[in-house]
User: What shape does this take?
Amino acid sequence: MLTAGQHKTLTAIRQYIARHDYAPTLSEIAESLGLRSKGSLHKHVQALAAAGYLRITSGQTRGLQLTRQAYEQLHTLPLLGRIAAGQPIEAIPGEDTLNLTEFLLGPDRFALRVLGDSMVDAGILDGDTVIIERRDTAADGDIVVALIDNSEATLKRLRHRGDRIELIPANSACQTQVYPAERVQIQGVLVGQLRTYP
Assistant: This one.
């Protein structure tokens, strides 16, 4: 387990690398954390390296590198068990974690914010964020991001009908859109969804 200081240091390094695409110096980490002294920061960095979260290349100003373990630790939540959405079940604490990297992230994934209510019956609401896996083909029934005439993108359920493509909403108040297949390009397939509650 990381201490609070180590976790803050690791988070600061990760955020800096995400923004700049290269590692921060100790001074830059200290500045981002609002620290005047680099002494305790140096100890945190050494402890993170000893624990396997960082690799340090000596003699380089920007010699910090995050390990796979660092990314996994930063993108996990405690998985405390199961919860009933029907009849109540006994609450048994779990001992596992949910790896958000495997659940949401990946080299071929991207996120889109949903605007509109054409997919509400599929549980996709206005304002939700959907996670899309980049693909140029999809199976009938998949919820896809479809690009129409290289200009308009929409989130709909896909159905092939010979030389035509049907883009089917999940809302009885909306109409199915039908296009010649050459007018529609599949950009990706829905693999996840995020929603926050006030």
